[in-house]
């Protein structure tokens, strides 16, 4: 019997790389089957999917397999145990890598991507020292190094750091088990120096035709004489910018981009805005720096073809209400009410994830996708919600309910409603007949 996966698996929420680094990419001989890989990888954890890439015409294996685990640590242990293993005598050893995130498109997995599996980005108290940070994270495995990011002038900590381990499994252990206050996430590999210089040069060319040299770097003329402090009291709105950037931009790249403007104190991706973009916050040491960064970076294409949206700072209102703020993006459903054009009942507990689906409703977010956390906050209020999700890179998706009555109430209340200024279309989903369901290729 072939290794099974749910129908339309790749369109389900579980098909996304959640948690991160939990999907493996395997290069192997073409004679192997999905059943063999299910048997091979199951001892290391809960295997959610085994998918063998096949030729669409002949149905023959292309020698590439994806294996999705439910936990990052399970994928890590499987990779470390099986990479280089010979499955059949005389055959080349299999190569096991962490697969590229599906949201980044068809980027091919490579050996050089291993650094992304062993380096974590963490938020830390500004009073924390390197020794304290090392002691905190050394309990999860052997460290390569810890680095606290500091202001180049004052050498004060900026409130975040990088922690690098020797092994993927140790980094995964820290990611899953460290104190939640650190908000640990996997950091992208450091970009090559040439790429960093290219992004600096592109920005400097696009934002101004003139620059002057001051000290050790290029300083924008408007900010070259600014003090890092101000005599008047400053509100967070004066010095903080709300940013929407492409999901292809990682934490390192965003920091380096906003750090071109002197005075950057803090820059952090706070969550997902929609399938193609993320929300972020950039905070500067004074209002003039924040205003200058806003004026120069709003609309800037980074990467090429993807424009930044930068709002806030002095004399301007923050990002419009339709943009989900960080508090809404909390994993907890109990935090805050979402702006909605119709009155909503109180939040209700979710149904058990293993509950049978009685009815689904089809959701369309008109103009732009809403974050999954926001949709869950809204659709759970009618009771018996199993899950809600959007299809990858789409503005549409499904809400699954354990009772038909709950689904019907959601449709009646939410069809045509606006959430964060985004209009929803909610209708009963057509259930495909068995003969129309996508079938696995044998």
Could you write a compact summary of the structure shown?
The chain is an alpha+beta fold and 442 residues long. It has helices at residues 34-41, 72-82, 130-137, 168-177, 193-207, 236-239, 251-258, 287-297, 372-379, 404-414; strands spanning 23-27, 47-54, 61-69, 95-98, 119-123, 143-150, 157-165, 185-186, 212-214, 217-219, 240-246, 264-274, 277-284, 309-312, 359-365, 385-390, 396-401, 418-419, 422-428.
What does this structure look like?
The protein has 442 residues and is an alpha+beta fold. Helices cover 21% and strands 26% of the residues. It is built from 10 helices and 19 strands. The protein has helices at 34-41, 72-82, 130-137, 168-177, 193-207, 236-239, 251-258, 287-297, 372-379, 404-414, and strands spanning 23-27, 47-54, 61-69, 95-98, 119-123, 143-150, 157-165, 185-186, 212-214, 217-219, 240-246, 264-274, 277-284, 309-312, 359-365, 385-390, 396-401, 418-419, 422-428. A 5-stranded antiparallel β-sheet has the order 16-17-15-19-18, covered by helices on one side. Strands 2-3-1-4 form a 4-stranded antiparallel β-sheet, covered by helices on one side. A 4-stranded antiparallel β-sheet has the order 6-7-5-8. Strand 6 and strand 7 form a beta hairpin. The chain starts with 22 loop residues before the first strand and ends in a 14-residue tail after the last strand. Residues 1-15, 103-107, 195-236, 316-335 and 433-442 have low confidence and may be disordered.
């Amino acid at each position: 019997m072939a290794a099974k996966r749910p129908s339309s698996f790749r369109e389900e929420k579980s098909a996304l790389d959640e948690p991160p680094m939990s999907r493996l990419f395997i290069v192997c001989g073409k004679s192997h089957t999905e059943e063999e890989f299910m048997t091979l990888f199951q001892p290391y954890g809960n295997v959610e999917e085994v998918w063998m890439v096949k030729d669409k015409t002949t149905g023959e294996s292309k020698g590439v397999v994806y294996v999705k685990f439910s936990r990052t640590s399970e994928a890590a242990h499987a990779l470390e145990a099986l990479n280089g293993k010979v499955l059949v005598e005389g055959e080349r050893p299999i190569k096991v890598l962490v697969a590229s995130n599906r949201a980044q498109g068809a980027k091919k997995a490579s050996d050089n991507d291993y650094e992304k599996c062993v380096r974590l980005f963490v938020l830390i108290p500004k009073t924390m020292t390197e020794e304290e940070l090392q002691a905190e994270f050394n309990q999860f495995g052997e460290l390569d190094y810890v680095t606290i990011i500091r202001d180049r002038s004052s050498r004060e900590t900026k409130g975040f750091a990088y922690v690098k381990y020797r092994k993927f499994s140790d980094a995964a252990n820290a990611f899953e088990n460290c104190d939640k206050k650190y908000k640990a996430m996997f950091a992208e590999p450091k970009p090559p120096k040439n790429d960093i210089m290219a992004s600096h040069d592109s920005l400097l060319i696009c934002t101004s035709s003139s620059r002057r040299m001051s000290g050790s770097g290029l300083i924008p003329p408007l900010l070259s004489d600014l003090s890092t402090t101000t005599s008047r009291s400053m509100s967070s709105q004066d010095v903080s910018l709300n940013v929407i950037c492409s999901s292809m931009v990682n934490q390192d790249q965003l920091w380096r981009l906003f750090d071109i403007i002197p005075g950057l104190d803090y820059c952090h991706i706070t969550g997902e805005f929609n399938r193609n973009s993320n929300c972020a916050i950039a905070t500067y040491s004074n209002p003039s720096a924040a205003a200058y960064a806003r004026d120069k970076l709003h609309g800037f294409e980074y990467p090429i073809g993807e424009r930044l949206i930068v709002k806030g700072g002095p004399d301007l209102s923050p990002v419009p209400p339709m943009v989900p703020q960080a508090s809404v993006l909390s994993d907890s459903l109990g935090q805050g009410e979402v702006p909605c054009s119709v009155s909503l009942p109180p939040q209700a507990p979710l149904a058990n994830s293993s509950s049978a689906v009685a009815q689904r409703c089809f959701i369309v977010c008109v103009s732009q996708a809403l974050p999954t956390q926001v949709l869950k906050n809204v659709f759970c209020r009618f009771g018996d919600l199993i899950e809600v999700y959007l299809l990858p890179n789409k503005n549409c998706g499904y809400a699954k309910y354990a009772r038909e009555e709950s689904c019907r109430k959601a449709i009646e209340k939410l069809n045509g409603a606006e959430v964060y200024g985004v209009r929803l279309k909610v209708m009963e989903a057509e259930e495909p007949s068995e003969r129309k369901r996508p079938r696995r290729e044998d």
